[in-house]
Amino acid sequence: MSETELVERLGAADVGDHVSVDLADGTSFEGVASPIDYVPEESLRVEVRPEGGTTERYELRADYDGEWNAMSVRHTDAADGDSGWETLGAVERIEVRGDEDEWEWGHS
Fold first, then answer.
1. Which residues contact 25 (CB under 8 A, 6 or more apart)?
2. Is 13 exposed, middle or buried, given 0-12, 13-18 or 19+ CB atoms closer than 10 A?
3. Which pTM was predicted?
4. Predicted pLDDT at 2
5. Could you report the per-residue pLDDT of 22-78, keeping only the tens digit for each?
């Protein structure tokens, strides 16, 4: 699956779908997608909020400039007050599970 196909698939995901992500630096996270902001040939932003009452939030983002750039990931924790967003490593694998669809991108 190309970067374009990955962006299109994530853009078509539904709020509430379960997303699992593994990063090149060994970081892994999973949770519910909410919100999903997708504008074809412009930008994609998917926020993933882990379940279980945590205050953490992760953001998957890609921008279009003639082609889609590599997906970037940021993290923040509301419990840390004004800590802002921290940039994390490159995406190695993404799995999305919804009510009617399940798919994976990257290395397993």
1. 88, 89, 90
2. buried
3. 0.89
4. 83
5. 999 899 999 999 999 999 999 999 999 998 878 899 999 999 999 999 899 999 998
| Dist CA 72 CA 91 (whole Å) | 7
Output the CA–CA distances (angstroms, integers) from residue 23 to 35, 42, 60, in the order listed: 21, 24, 11
Nearest CA to 59 out of 74, 77, 49 is that of 74
- Please state, in angstroms and rounded to a whole number, the distance separating the CA atoms of residues 51 and 42: 29
Best CA proximity match to 5, nearest among 67, 59, 66, 58: 67
First-residue to last-residue Cα distance in the chain: 14
- DSSP strands (E only) in the chain: 18-23, 28-39, 43-49, 56-63, 72-77, 86-87, 91-97, 102-106
